[in-house]
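Human: I'm a chemist; would you kindly supply sequence and structure tokens for a protein?

Assistant:
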Amino acid sequence: MLSDNIAIEKDKEVNQIIEPPDELDGAKVIKWAWSGDKSFGFIPTADSNDTIEIFGFAICQYDD
């Protein structure tokens, strides 16, 4: 389950993140980087030729 603090891109509008989420998909967020108003770049989606803009990176760890 994703945290409510994650930015959601909708019609090219991005909501600003102030603090990193505590968890992503049930994994504890250990390190967090947020690019602010300018994205880190784009990555392709797995199921189409579309790309998504990346604003945040997280290093996470699931419980054993």
User: Anything to note?
Assistant: The CA atoms of residues 10 and 33 lie 21 Å apart. Residues 1-12 have pLDDT under 50 and may be disordered. Strands lie at 9-10, 13-14, 23-24, 27-34, 41-44, 51-54, 56-61.
